[in-house]
User: Fold these one by one.
Assistant:
Number 1:
Amino acid sequence: MPVSTTPRPALRGPGPSEHPGDPAQATLESLGRSVGAPAPGTAPAVEVTDLVREFTRRRKSPARALNGLTLSVPEGEVHGLLGPNGAGKTTLVRILSTVLLPTAGRAAVCGHDVVREDRAVRRLVGVVFGGDRGLYTRLTARENLEFWGALQKVPARLLRARSSELLDRLGLAEVADRRVEGYSRGMRQRLHLARGLVGEARVLFLDEPTMGMDPVAAREFRTLIGELRGEGRTIVLATHDMAEAQALCDRVSFVRDGEVVATRSPHALTDLAAGVEFDDLDDAALALLTDLPGVTEVTVGQGTTRVRTDSEEALSSVLATAVGQGATRMRTLQPTLEDVYVQLIGDRGLKV
Amino acid sequence: MGTLAAGFRLQLRFYRSYPDLLVPLLTAPLYGVVFTLVMRDGHRPDLVGSASLAPFYMSLWWFALFSGGWIIQTDRWEGTLEHLVSAPAAFAAVVLGRISATLLPAGFAFTETWVFARYVLDAPVTIRHWTVFLASFTVTLFAMAATALLMAALFVLARNAVTFSNSASFPFYVLGGILVPVAVLPGWLQPFTRPVFLSWSADLLRAAVAPGPVPHPALGLGAIAVLGVAAGLAGGVVLSHILRRLRTRGELAIT
């Protein structure tokens, strides 16, 4: 999947709203202006408060997909939504993109309520739901993109050129005039992405955008996300891919049972699973460490003891205590977002 | 306008990609042969003209029912409805654009049917009242588009829409006075024919190819227009209702 050679901005650089002089800000100024949206930076890109969504079921009590979820995403941020199947990520994306109505609570995009001002919201957002469906499979990729671009109100004089540019950017130029029914899953996913981008949306909702992509294409997709952030867009990315979230997101929110259980930068989140591994810890020291505040997990293995903490302060306390007890052989653990995920969400196995 | 045009182009591309959607254009001449021979064999030369043109109305109804009527439901099955609804363009405009495109093959169906009736079946179909013919043809296409919009919305609500659309052809051909004039139908059935715009259209077309003056052309044209407007308004209301309902229930896509 070839991508443009535009220099990629720093992955965790400050958002454009914090840098008024940033060229990216100028790009942002041109987005969403025609719809009476609040000026960039004056309202969060996404503001969700106590959002509830229930689905009625026959002869059963309603299933609650969102249970008072609250979330705020500032403009220009790449925000990850992480959580297991059924956590409510897709339901949230569907509500924010106006295809689903909430049961209670409030959700707004750039200051526009998704229920009362749905038409204004639609002019601001681009959506990638992912999956095999959602495309006209007997039409070519170019025909699909031109149709969806027209629905995104892209001026006719620009549409053809923009479609060609996007198809090229997403590596579909050579197959652009073939019917989509012959596409692989990854190719369809790229076309989904192209559709999400064709309207030059100010806020992009991407639900499992790399599902079905091969590793090389997924890597190029990450480059593309970096470019989009450089253009000043806000991106909400629902994903299961921890590496993807860690590489792309300014902040991530862990969603469990329809609620956000933590929102921090990936770096700060990994502090939640900071830890140290000892080779020579005796039982007395082990008992002391177990009782220390901030210790979340102690695992004794064959000759080693792993202690997990929920903060750097707790980790310092563990180290000091262990050294005081005579421990000499130890190494810090480098937690990944996956460690944090398991710690926050829990090991649910195959349950959904 | 851009959205209407996009919907229009999309439907034309579907006709290219799904040629089976144009099957009435193949069957119309065959029906024309059957109906004309039945009338001639039954010694009813007065009905040969209308019978030979009946396939046009059958094609028209078929396009309204199957081509236009299934637009929204097919998008639900394909998973495209969510994207249509989440786009800034008005969804109703997309549907109207697509339905408008169904008028093209419907218009072609008339040309095909008339040429076949006139030059192959040698039926008396010479158009004698061009004004009435053109006016009735125009309002008939409008009423068909409006009816297709109503059906497209209703088919989303109806659980047994497939059964309805598969079985709704011939009853409407009878009620529409397509095969034989409404006046020939049993008396008790005739009141049921008046709410069907096709019955007024067929009467006017028959009158337009018959010698002598056209009886009450304004009444017929007005009836078709009123029925079309009513269907269009009802279609708009139902469409708005179903979109709200699908968004509330989370049923925009059928998985």
Note: The two ends of chain A are 33 Å apart (CA to CA).
Number 2:
Amino acid sequence: MHIDNQQDTLPLVPEGIAAEAGETGPVLTGGHCPHCRRDFFPRPRHCPQCLQPPEERQLSGDGVIYSYTVVRTRAPFGLPQPYAVGFIDLSQSGLRIFGLLNQSDIGRLAIGKAVCLKLEPLGLDGKGGPCRRPYFSLAEREGDDA
Amino acid sequence: MPKPVVAGVGMIPFAKYPQRSLVDLGAEAAFLALKDAGVAPGRVEAGFFANAVGSRLFGDSTIGQNVLWEVGINRIPVINVENACTSGSTAFYLACNAVAAGQAEMALVVGAEKMCVPEFGLINSGESEWDTQLGLVAPASFALRAQRHMLEFGTTVEQMAQVAVKNRAHAAGNPVAMFRDLITVEDVLAAPMIVDPLTRFQCCPIADGAAALVVCSEAVARGLGRAAVRVKAVVLGTGGYESPQDLAHWETDYRVCAQAYEKAGLGPEDLDLVECHDAFTISEILHYEALGLCPPGEGGRFVAQGHASLGGRVPVNPSGGLLSRGHPVGATGVAQVIEIVEQLRGQAGPRQIAGAKVGLAHCMGGDKAGDTKSCTAAILSI
């Protein structure tokens, strides 16, 4: 997929919860407590167990859909209407996190399907301007025209 | 330790009141509760006022002092409570604790909300929260629970619709409920889809409204010569928030309900009725299970078999619940307690549960990390 430079510089909403990581594609920006050996998303200010400051940790956005739904009310933040959201079980960290789903996957979504993370223009930021948001997209199979 | 009781109740019909202010609504409910208890304002030693969205919609703050002075209450401690949908039940919790601690012999609880205004959108967990910015709105978090419940336990959309149908039938006997016209499963399923699989009739309507309670010690109530309803337990808990959350088995809900039973020394088999937080049809099904009214996963079948209906094993939301009474957020938790009190006093009219002795009021509020932010449960008996 081609993403031009202009799109790459669009602000990220919400700030600080995902990042581009070069060849591997986007990742989630979480936290890790080396003392308690626990991962968190988003990165908390303190480890809720030992109150040490967690390290920043890039978390893989690969996972499977734990639950999903399609929101058909007036969409907030300039999101598409309707739009889909869900909880994703992240394969690497074992965390279960809320996220947007790819609008173009509506109709093909199912619990248990594999997803991967995207970080692309979606909706508006707090000032009403274009921005990028992280969202999960059904993992494309080999040979799919994506 | 003084034992708290409810000695007076007052509420206005939940509806749209475009011409009336929030203070006006709250003051009327407060007035009615004081009259019902037969007490003068000077007897009240503490005030707890619940409101959830007034500061956001109208820029008001410390509204409780304004409301209470409208009924002649001044000088005493007045505390304004915001705890999302549990604002009212949290105010009740605080009032009972104040009485039990001997800090006040008599306390007034008022919950009021005015939210039927054009500025009001969908409830979310806070504009600045990261998940809100990713499109999380309240109906979505319950729809996500519904999807899991359907997958894990075979709960059907028809069973969920039965919750809305039942609560509407209950509301037909409640003059303060907002919606009292009967609906069918077909009506519920044919209504516009809000968030899959929840249609409009499966989401509680916003409303304006106010409700109030006089809470005092058992000793003070005896002096009033009124039938007091005992508060056997009142508990408040917050979410666990850890990942992963099980959306079909709500740990916070189970934990808080268990605490209430333990404190009261009672169990689900002792309940004659329940008022629970049916913000969405699936919520009520989840609460049956957390409350132990049926085994985990059986909530859909429990309602479909009529066990939660008036005349059933344990009537749930005989008032019509949030789904039909309407949900003026700050008033809801207080109105739930009022329904229990009226049932236990035998004053519930056509929806009266014969011989009701024990009732439980349950409420939930807010959303964080796939969990609720607040959950309350109160067990009352006569």
Note: The two ends of chain A are 8 Å apart (CA to CA).
